[in-house]
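User: Modeling request: complex.
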Amino acid sequence: MIRHIFTLMWNRRRANGLLVLEIFLAYVVLFAVGTIGSSLWENYRQPLGFRFDNVWQVNFLPGTQPKAEALGTLQQVLARLRATPGVLGVAVTASNTPFSFNDSRTAIDFADRPGGPKRPINNINSYAVGPELRDVMGLEVTKGRWFDQRDAVAGSHPPLVIDEQMQRAMFPTGESALGKLLTLNKDKQWRIIGVVRAYRTDGELKEPLPAIFGPIAPADTLFLPQSLLVRVAPGSGAALEKRLADDIRRIGPGWTSTIRTLDEMHSSQLKQVITRPLLLSVMSIFLLLNVALGLFGVLWLAISARRAELGVRRALGAPAGAIARLIVGETLALTTFGLVLGLLVAVQFPLLGALGERTSVYLTAIALAAGALYLLATICALYPSRLAAGIRPAVALREE
Amino acid sequence: MQPQPTTAPAPPAATATPPVIQLTGIEKVYQTSTIETVALSNVNLSINRGEFVSVMGPSGCGKSTLLSLMGLLDEPSGGTIAIDGRPVGSYSDKELAGLRNHKIGFVFQSYHLINDLSVRDNVELPLLYRPGIGGSERRRRALAALDKVGLTARTGHFPAQLSGGQRQRVAIARALVGEPEIILADEPTGNLDSVMGEEIMDLLLGLNRAQGTTLVMVTHDEQQALKTGRLVRFFDGRQVA
Ligand SMILES: Nc1ncnc2c1ncn2[C@@H]1O[C@H](COP(=O)(O)OP(=O)(O)OP(=O)(O)O)[C@@H](O)[C@H]1O
Ligand SMILES: [Mg+2]
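Assistant: Request completed. Predicted assembly structure:
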């Protein structure tokens, strides 16, 4: 029967060409949707690395106050906030806080480091943070240690914490990064003292990037952080928010501040990130619907054009089931042809490393799209095949 | 030439073996939106095992309709059809398909070959719906059947590349290939020259004689009809002889 199907397909190759083209296009659409979907899913599955419930982001502007003075004022503000009932912890940080759409990226060229990977690591998220960040955000230290008092008395190399993604990027073979020196900005060398699970401030749907953390010491006089992350007691609300804002205004002459919960920042960031893929998905659903209708229509048309043939088959003793299987079998065989063409296109993406997407994402999309294509083809063939099976042998006597 | 010795002796209807095909009180009415055509009216006809029956009558008298009912291709508007004594109304679709496939070989008046299949694949078709016959066996039998109708040189051709007479022979080969007990042939020599027609007629007579195949053949040729065991005449949907 399978050979019969292929014979028939080959003999009808011209009529089938259109169908194969349609199926090929359907596969390409499915592959595109699958890539977006599996990319988002792949990102979503990775650990976020921090807890953002009951954390507030406080951004402040020191107004016209000179930087040297502002640094002192900041210490007062910090002391004040930490002493406020309902505040469980306060960490200073550069402005690339979670879900803020701010980022600070750096790249490291490892070409000079013997034994390391030869290619540079691009797009590293770089965070300048106070030592309190671990407790405020609930970061999980998986190796080595987080910043502490020891760093204040350390010798020549300032400490650096990296995340696991960075560890993997630096040492794909699994060698520990602990104690290694890292040259940043071509001049200063940093010693890696610890590894945290992750700190994905870009949100759960963005591709996880490697991260490095440099400490903001209380005595730092070079850098004036303008963001605070504040962990508050559960249930804290507007009253505490007003009190913090009032305190900042009172202590800092001319200081202004904005306070937002990370919860709220998270939802607005999520909305923004998901909009484009969502729109694309809706568009592709319509596109697929179109393709499905086309497939269905072409199959249906093919059945009506083949009524006489199918009637003859019935007259020669084909049971209704065999006719249905013939139609479904032919459709699936044609689907396989269209799929092979589609695969030829799809595999180019991981092979050429196009669009910078991960290979695993492409492979998942290729498999998902193939499954979906067969499902689509089967669904589209089901009704026409039932129609075909219902053709009575007497039809053979009339048609022609 | 005497027709009698060429056919196997038909057992009388009263014996224990029932007729292979029995039509009782058959009516066939074709209903179209504008008119109603009575194609067959109160037809009672028994075909016994091993018989060779020819059917004659003017155009439009219902011969093809009769054959399609015997071949289980269509259902009568009234009356019953029994195969081997069992009314076909009691058969399931699958059983009917099995009967059409194993028991009956049908030669259509207008051939009804499948244009997208080669001559050989067309002839193989009935065997395709028989479980347990492999591809090479199908091919062997198809080539043997084509050999019987003298078409071995055309097996890779497509129906569109054949003459009317060649198509008719392919249709005959397709009816023979499954070695059915019954062959129903609707003007099987209608498009053949007299020599070829004679050969096909001899082939059918040979099957009837050597293998006891039951044959019902529609023909317009009195000479051919005389060679068969029994002649049934129709006029305007009724059996007249
Ligand atoms: N599908 C159909 N729908 C309507 N009327 C039909 C149909 N098939 C046959 N008829 C009518 O039934 C009658 C008998 O037709 P049938 O084909 O059995 O005649 P026939 O004896 O085989 O004729 P011929 O010798 O020309 O082949 C004719 O009047 C024909 O018009
Ligand atoms: Mg006729």
